[in-house]
Design goal:
Main location: membrane
Number of domains: 1
Oligomer: single chain
Keywords: Cell membrane, Membrane, Transmembrane, Transmembrane helix, Transport
Family: Belongs to the auxin efflux carrier (TC 2.A.69) family.
InterPro entries: Mem_transp_PIN-like, Na+/solute_symporter_sf
Shape: globular
Order of helices and strands: HHHHHHHHHHHH
Membrane topology: Multi-pass membrane protein
Helix content: over 70%
Length: about 300
Amino acid sequence: MTLILGALLPIFAVIGLGWVLRRTNLVQESAWPGISRLTYVGLSPALLFSVISKADFSTISVGPAVAASALGFVVMGVIVLALKPLIRADGPSFTSVFQGACRWNGLVILALAALAYGVEGEVLISLIMVVTIPIVNIQVVTVLTVWGANGRKPDVPTVMRRIVTNPLILGCIAGGVANLLGWFQTGTVSEVVELMGRAALPLILLAVGAGLDFTALRANRWLLALTVVLKLILAPVVFGLIAWTFGVRGEALAIVVMVGASPGAASAYVLAQQLGGNRQLTAGDVTATTLLSFFTLPAAVWIAQLVG
């Protein structure tokens, strides 16, 4: 637990700094969407490319951990859908619960894995991201299409286009191709991409902090509490059990549990806004899970380390 706490402290310190910068207007509120866009479209793909292109996969066994993570998101989606008759909420509010329980902030977990477990942790999270991003997006877009307030019909081509053009997926795929072919291991291109990647995580964490919305915590507190329980308590148990069944042990097991215990992603708010979800409840989900994960993440990983 000491290792994870030591890694979490600087991460949450930078997140807190982002909130302070926005609240004090030292960085104007209008600037944050551009910063978030820069990290998502440019810097984060560069980071993932740099990590994957130089990884030594001969020393890393990732298959079972990646498979367990993918199945974990599917199982969580099924659980939330099964609970729908018991969740007394309108359609848009249910989509917020679903997003809160089934999305994860992969880039925050990438930063945590890098600090706690080094290059191998970075590589494993990067590969989990490229496999699970399509799965999670298909799940949440489908749920928002069915129960969102905008009345749109399912648009399969649009969903697929969003997935295949996702900058994070493209960065991972390009890194994998470069690794396979031995390209850009050294030289100017490698140095430029690595330098861009170094800027990604601090800006991502600052943007997460700037996006915290404490007023949104006044939204439906019962649904907020339910989402927190699903995301921060049930999900790491589900992911851990699946990974254990798949034979995942040691640091890999802890990393899979970290994926399950991740706070919600700020991109959920954007999707709720576009597809008719409950935006205020979604903002509350992201804020609550981000704050509480400071306590639940170390506990979840500590239990995983004891078991594995």
